[in-house]
Design brief:
The complex is a heterodimer of chains A (394) and B (157). Chain A is α+β, with helices and mostly antiparallel strands. Helices cover 26% and strands 28% of the residues of chain A. In chain A, the strands form three sheets. A seven-stranded antiparallel sheet of chain A has the order 3-4-6-10-9-8-7. In chain A, strand 7 and strand 8 form a beta hairpin. Chain B is an all-alpha fold. Helix content of chain B is 72%, strand content 0%. Chain B is globular. Classes of the chains: A alpha+beta (394), B mainly alpha (157). At the A-B interface, helix 1 of A face helix 1, helix 2, helix 4, helix 5 and helix 6 of B.
Chain lengths: 394, 157
């Protein structure tokens, strides 16, 4: 090391050692201090819970009254409750459940995960959720997962408290300590644990594995949560069961779980080759300007190019839901036909684009009134920004 | 090599905390980001402890930097610290230090590299891995940063 470099080392050590460190009780992360971004995210999520409850209450109300199919529109006046007015909401039925009909079809496909190296049968309309992007490459040690839903892509709905229908989830997590599937299951890793559950060792996907029974399922074939190791990672195949689970759907889920297997290298290479090339990057300015123009022109087709596959609608200090892009755009189209006028102020951004998320202001006006809404823009894969949702200001 | 136990991890974390915290403050000029990054790194160590306890300071710095990487490598890629608004009193303290005035001349990424090199003693390869850049980039950045700091030093000589 040169003398001048030694001088710099001395200078750095001398000066930086003067920086005061926090009190010892702050060294550990409990309680955590939230960043503004985290606060904003939590804000939306808390808001989502409230709206979800209200949506469910509305659904129950319609069900009790024997009401017919109701589809809320993106118009601010489409519903009577302000907590749900911001939304092209989920279609609800008189049965009291927001879940579109679940699968009993025997038509079958098979999903091959390009990044996680497994495949699973997907009887129609089961498919990987549009809100659960395909894992193309697992990075880092954090768990990742893909979610399968029993409804068509258009009928997908959700909220911050989950979906109204049962789903099947596949999680993959690094297993640096080389735990056995039984140890993983007994320690409640990845998916936690429940009192009284029993772990048993079995063979699954042609490997030594473990499974746990899942309570609250319908009579018939039992559902299990499976744990199986492969390539230094633990795979957890996890049926996420809702109380409304019917026997036919349960049987389909059992069949799907049992169909899980690992891909050969050739199969995984083929799955990767089938992954479409990422779309080109797009700036938040391009999205904001495009949204302003398309909404002013009531051009739903143009909006489709900016909207994420799974947009959310939420309220500040309230809750929110997600619907499919197709449903959202259909409701927007209906709103425009009924006289909805949306005015976007494309600048300034609220928030720092470097954080990966900004909002722009907009006003939604129709015959019943005017609402201010924040349009949320977010950075996606390949630095491609998109419109991911709307927050209504009360 | 055996994995670290939780107790051993906590002991090592406490031992490394002051130096890594100071390095992160010097790199980010943001006490909150530094502390948040370390908290995240602590939790990461609990979940997935490093393979061994050699150069734990380097491991913590790398992981904490990754946790704040979006800020480091995207929002502040070419932004000088002096162009950033900061009401963090810790930043003001750093400004008053001689080395702080030199670090002011650098972008945040340059600071992260220089601090890792001259304060934590990380190798260029370790820094390259931490920031996801090539080793040559680290070497060039150190040289450029030194040149810039020497210019300032000469001005004040």
């Amino acid at each position: 090391m040169r003398d001048e470099d030694k001088d710099l080392v001395h200078l750095f050590v001398r000066d930086l050692d003067e920086i005061a460190v926090p009190a010892r009780d702050q060294w550990r992360p409990a309680p955590r201090k939230e960043s503004q971004l985290m606060k904003n995210s939590r804000y939306v999520l808390y808001a989502s819970a409230v709206v979800a409850v209200l949506v469910l209450a509305l659904i129950a109300g319609f069900g009790l009254r024997g009401g017919n199919l109701v589809a809320a529109s993106p118009s601010p006046s489409a519903t009577t409750n302000t907590s749900t007015t911001s939304s092209p909401t989920a279609t609800t039925t008189s049965s009291g459940t927001p879940a579109p009909s679940q699968s009993t079809s025997s038509a079958s496909g098979r999903y091959a995960s390009p990044g996680l190296g497994y495949s699973i049968e997907t009887p129609s309309p089961w498919h990987r959720s549009t809100c659960s992007t395909a894992i193309v490459a697992q990075q880092g040690a954090n768990p990742v997962g893909e979610i399968f839903v029993p409804v068509s892509a258009r009928d997908e709905t959700g909220s911050d408290i989950g979906t109204a229908y049962s789903t099947l989830r596949v999680f993959v997590e690094a297993n640096p300590q080389g735990l056995s599937p039984r140890q993983w299951a007994e320690q409640g890793k990845t998916v936690g644990g429940q009192a009284g559950e029993r772990v048993e060792e079995i063979v699954y996907a042609d490997r030594a594995a473990a499974r746990k029974s899942i309570p609250l399922t319908a009579p018939g074939a039992a559902l299990y949560r499976y744990f199986v190791a492969n390539g230094g990672r633990m795979y957890v195949v996890d049926p996420d069961v809702r109380p409304s689970l019917d026997a036919a759907t349960q049987q389909t889920m059992v069949r799907m779980v049992e169909s899980f297997r690992f891909l050969t290298e050739a199969e995984q290479a083929a799955a990767r080759a089938a992954v479409p090339s990422p779309l080109p990057s797009r700036t938040p300015e391009q999205v904001a300007d495009g949204l302003a123009a398309a909404l002013a022109a009531k051009n739903v087709d143009a909006l489709a190019g900016f909207l994420s596959p799974c947009p959310f609608t939420a309220g500040e200090n309230a809750g929110g839901i997600t619907v499919s892009r197709e449903k959202y755009l259909d409701d927007l189209r209906a709103g425009f036909a009924a006289g909805l006028v949306v005015t976007v102020r494309a600048r300034p951004f609220d928030g720092d684009p470097a954080s990966g998320s900004v909002t722009i202001a907009s006003t939604w006006q129709d015959s019943r009134g005017t609402k201010d809404r924040k349009l949320v823009l977010s950075r996606g894969e390949n630095d491609r920004w998109q419109w991911v949702g709307t927050i209504e200001r009360f | 090599m055996p994995q670290l136990t939780v107790e051993r991890w906590e002991e090592l974390y406490d031992r490394a905390f002051p130096q890594v915290y100071r390095a992160l403050v010097a790199a980010t000029f943001d006490r909150e980001r530094a502390l948040d990054g370390l908290h995240d790194a602590f939790e990461e160590g609990l979940r997935h402890p490093p393979a061994d306890d050699r150069n734990l300071e380097g491991w913590l710095y790398r992981v904490a930097l990754r946790k704040t990487r979006r800020g480091l490598l995207r929002s502040l890629r070419e932004t000088r610290m002096t162009e950033r608004a900061s009401d963090d009193p810790t930043a003001a303290v750093v400004h008053r230090l001689e080395v702080g005035r030199l670090l002011e001349l650098l972008t945040e990424r340059q600071r992260a590299i220089v601090v890792a090199h001259y304060y934590l003693g990380l190798s260029q390869q370790e820094i390259a891995e931490a920031l996801g850049v090539r080793r040559g980039t680290v070497s060039a950045t150190v040289s450029q940063s030194l040149a810039r700091m020497r210019e300032r030093g000469a001005e004040h000589a």
